Amino acid sequence: MSPRTAEHMTWNQAHHAVDGVMVHPSDGEEWKRFNSVHPHFSAESRNVRLGLCIDGFNPFRSFAAPCSCWPVILTVYNLPSGICMRSEFIFLSTVIPGPSSPG
């Protein structure tokens, strides 16, 4: 990790949310609940928080073909909202192939 990226990894601790406005996942109720349930983890701002995303699609663009592909993507949520969704910080962790969606 570059020194420039490393300085952004503690952004979520210094970020102050405006009430009623969600700009980043750290503004959400679940983030705050996680902090209260796991105070030891949340006390260290450099602990990496990842978002897990999954979405399926048909690689052949045909609903008649019995194939599907489900990429599982990890996103680094420590970074500011303008950076955390850039392609260099989104990681394809696995792909679930199959004739249908995962159960």
Q: What share of the residues does DSSP label as strand, in percent?
A: 15-25%
Radius of gyration: 17 Å
Question: In which range does the helix fraction lie?
Answer: 25-40%
Helical stretch count? Answer: 5
Helix/strand/pairing class, anyone? alpha+beta
Largest sheet entry: 3 strands, antiparallel
Alpha carbon gap, first and last residue: 36 Å
Spatial order of the strands forming the largest sheet = 1-2-3
Q: What is the average per-residue confidence, as pLDDT, rounded to a whole number?
A: 84
What would the principal axes of the Cα set say about the shape? elongated
Q: What do these coordinates show?
A:
- This protein is 27% helix and 22% strand.
- It has helices at 3-8, 11-14, 29-37, 39-43, 81-84; strands spanning 50-54, 68-76, 90-98.
- The N and C termini lie far apart (36 Å).
- The mean pLDDT is 84.
Quick gist of this model?
The protein is 27% helix and 22% strand. It contains 5 helices and 3 strands; from the N terminus they run H-H-H-H-E-E-H-E.
Question: How do the strands and helices of this protein lay out in sequence?
Answer:
Elements: H1 3-8, H2 11-14, H3 29-37, H4 39-43, E1 50-54, E2 68-76, H5 81-84, E3 90-98
Keywords summarizing the entry:
27% helix; 5 helices; 103 residues; 3-stranded antiparallel sheet; alpha+beta
